[in-house]
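User: I'm writing a tutorial on reading structure tokens. Could you give me a worked example: one chain, its sequence, then its tokens, then a sentence or two explaining what the tokens reveal?
Assistant: Sure. Here is the example chain.
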Amino acid sequence: MLTLEWESEGLQTVGIVVIIFASLKLLHLLGLIDFSEDTVEDEMEMATVRHRPEALELLEAQSKFTKKELQILYRGFKNECPSGVVNEETFKEIYSQFFPQGDSTTYAHFLFNAFDTDHNGSVSFEDFVMGLSILLRGTVQEKLNWAFNLYDINKDGYITKEEMLDIMKAIYDMMGKCTYPVLKEDAPRQHVETFFQKMDKNRDGVVTIDEFIESCQKDENIMRSMQLFENVI
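And here are its predicted structure tokens:
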């Protein structure tokens, strides 16, 4: 069981860590990465360049993965997703396995929309690679931009209290009984208020990308969380 200690000062850290950790788990459950070191070299030997080498070379230039890493990722992706895309239901099914004590449906929906950059209702291998490249190996600025995009549900360039409350409720619902101490019913709203007191510098009721990044960069907990899952593949 996954246990997290929820503190007001660590609110943003929890949200960002869940984003990265859940995304990493999604990769593992899809068969795209294996945490056992003795299988990596075998997988590299089995990977071939028969699958769209031009596309892989382009992704290598655009992402922070090597060609061999992309070959492994693509091979696993095609084995698990023969259609070449992942739909929202797949996200929901995988997160329901990862968080059996809670309801991960809403969070999986938000995360799927963040990966589905062209908003066509599916996540392609290219979408997946570019998102993971940022989450696992991107700069702090890139990771925070990605997190802001997740929180900015309607993509208007601002995070409102309503949007942040939706995200917080989704995270709390997903964690379910795994949180410690047990959360009060009004905890999501209280955390949203803390979030805005800290980040809404001009008190206009919304958080801009500049306010978000500036506040996060000043928070040591958030900066540490940005480095948790680098170079895992």
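What the tokens reveal: Residues 11-29 form the longest helix (19 residues). Residues 126 and 162 are 31 Å apart (CA to CA).
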